[in-house]
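Morning!

As promised:
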Amino acid sequence: MSIRALIVDDSSVMRKIVERCLRQAGMDLGQVHEASNGAEALALVNENPFDLILSDINMPVMDGLEFIRHLKEMESGKNIPIVMITTEGGEKSVLEALSLGAKGYIRKPFTPDQVKDHVIPVLGSQS
Amino acid sequence: MSTHTQSPAGNNAAPFDGWSSVLRESVKEVFSLMVGAEIMVPDHADPPVVTEVTGMVGLAGELCGVLSLRCGNGCATKIASRMLGVPISEAASHMSDAIGEICNMVAGNFKAKLNGMQDKCMLSVPTIITGGDYQLFSVAVADRIELPFLFDGDAVWIGLEIRA
């Protein structure tokens, strides 16, 4: 079955690159939804079932860490695996994202293989 | 663009020795991985400075300053085209977004390579200026690194102003 993915980043270019990396990694993606901040993403989670969320941290309106906090409080969102993709790859950001419930962490710049290596185990852990 | 700087500490301060090579490596990695094309270091003479698009990201914390990218419109559009995998004709509207992301990733990659700096330095949201008829004033600049590159034959200049 195709993977229903949500990509959250304030850069439309980066959203396209992440989607391309997922496809280049051989993942069977269905329709990919996009959001430019955490608030938009929460609205989409309310309306759509997702198997995977990839999210930036530094975004206007609602950042990625705040997004995870809200997501984990939602019945429709608390079990969706989320992987962070961000330039802020410091230990503090990593630990905070993981403590909030993120399943993985990818630092920009990245390769399609790095995306695949972080995403596949996360999807596997949900089955 | 012309640059005017008040620099009480002067240039070539010892703490910044070796940062040019770190910045050069950071730029090359970002282009190789995220643009999908190699950016070259010129063999001989520096390429001309063409300032039609300027991207900037601020750094704040223990490392304080501004990272900038300057290039021509055509070059910026080519970078966006390569990043998105779309024809040049479709890439123009994504030019600013692409250049902003490049600046963001170069700055993030650079600070990640500096030992212990990752958690002690924050990045701003990128700013893009289109057009070259402007002046940039900086205060308290301790050092400045300017690195020339060639992307598909076009000049790209990466700058890092480090504040005291």
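The mean pLDDT of chain A is 90.

Hope this helps with the figure draft.
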